[in-house]
Here is the input.
Amino acid sequence: MSDPIQISETDHLIASGAYCRCYEHPENPDLCLKITTDNPKSVKRFKADLAYFRTLHRIQTDLSMIADYVAPCTTNLGPAHLFECVRDHDGTVSNTLEHYLKTQPEHLDAFFHALQDLGQYLQKNQILVSDLHGRNILLQRSADHALTPIVIDGLGERVAIPILNLFDSLVDAKIVRRWNRFLDKLQEAHPSLSLPLERAYLSKKK
Here is the structure.
């Protein structure tokens, strides 16, 4: 059994939310560690996320726009799970869509081009995201300034009747509904920006 990974709660912290805290791996820059919080819902939500990742792995889904799950591990702060760490070409951890909308609204067109790609990717690969918002999407910058959107959290289908997700038409309708609602909420959160929503809306497959 390997020794626990030693994490500094301050030096390695990337982000902290209601359900988990994310840390940089102290030895491998390609990985990050997620540790659940004390929120009563956090463990249940995380188990649902991991179960969904196992399904995606089993059916060999294209995860090029998802920060993939790697493995469980132990740390000095308790049990954790390893995920891919999304970094820009210069090695810095990629920033969220929310960050860019607040700090660089003049590049709105480029951000929405990336969002358009993400919506089409999720629909094409039939990937359900239960918690879509601007803090769960990173925009990864390449050396030529191209942006690749990466979903880093919120996967996991939390429904009472999961068997319904065996029907492609119902899954497609759910993806479209959730995505379009996410775009509308993004506009509500940024009323000063005229978001080109019509470019990124999804339509149900015929």
